[in-house]
Amino acid sequence: MEAVDRQAAPGRLELVREFVNTYDAGTLQEELDSPEQLRLWLIGHGLLADERPVSGPELERALSAREALRDLILASNRRMPGSDALETLNRLGKEASLTVRFEQDGSSELEPAVPGVNGAIGRMLAIVYASMVDGTWSRLKACEACEWAYYDRSKNRSRTWCSMDTCGSRNKARAYRRRRRTHG
């Protein structure tokens, strides 16, 4: 039996989780630090087919999408997403010209009508929409400590840290020291 990555999201939602995690807020490491890096990431993840270069404004748009998605994911940890994030995602969905595509088997799917980076962002937004409909979105969360996106596989959906070994332990130790100071 194959081991399941406890951080990974199911199906295509994993693509969104990986995209959000191209920036590590804990270490301040940016994977998409140039238009070329974005182009290679999108091609490597099957979101961009053409070989044309990615522009600086397209990189900025993709990074804006990523951070708006992170904000939406953080909302899964019991807080409301910011209106800026919602406006950004709505604008990007419109720029991708998301449309419904009906298939012979009776299924339907949102699909971007534009190519390139806008289309790639649109495909990720369509995945988010589908995961909201199928109920998997609420389990995609971001760590309260480092904002790393993970999929909450706990029975009661109460996980709040990416890992108990790192962020969970640090937060519990911090809370313990705080209690000791106030009661000590």
Please, could you describe this protein's structure?
With 184 residues, this protein is mainly alpha-helical. It has one domain (13-183): Jann2411-like fold (Orthogonal Bundle). It has helices spanning 13-20, 35-44, 56-74, 83-95, 116-134, 164-183; strands spanning 23-24, 29-30, 98-102, 108-112, 140-142, 149-151. The strands form three sheets. It has a two-stranded antiparallel ribbon. Helix 3 (56-74) packs across helix 4 (83-95) and helix 4 (83-95) crosses helix 5 (116-134). The radius of gyration is 18 Å and the shape is globular. The chain starts with 12 loop residues before the first helix and ends with a helix. The mean pLDDT is 86.
